[in-house]
Amino acid sequence: MPEPQSFPLGRLRWPVQIVQRGQAGDPNTTGVLETLIPIRTVRADVQPVGALTFWGTAGGNEQVDTPVTHRIYMRWQNSLPNAYAITRSTTLDDGTTRTEVFRVRRIKEIDGRKRFVIVECEEEKNS
């Protein structure tokens, strides 16, 4: 999908949470416990990337080191480091909640005006 030059606000329909990863030693084992510390809740548009973008079969768009599975469009964020993640929780028809965790890979400004950004992410968990 080409990057839009203007971005309609109506597309920002999903409430997502920007979270910071916290790690601490597990007192019961030798492992590490990871916690997600909420930073802020924002509205966003979450879009999966197409197969050509993901697999890079055309145009030399190969993803070598950091795969991107989703693009998340949101209002400008001053700082969104790779240590952060974005979570989206959705209530399903049967009443259960599905939570998706996206690892931030790259952030791109839309139209050079510091109004909106595209956050390229990799889906880590879907539970």
UniProtKB/TrEMBL annotation:
It comes from the Bacteria. InterPro entries: Phage_SPP1_head-tail_adaptor, SSP1_head-tail_sf. This is Head-tail adaptor protein. It comes from Komagataeibacter xylinus (Gluconacetobacter xylinus).
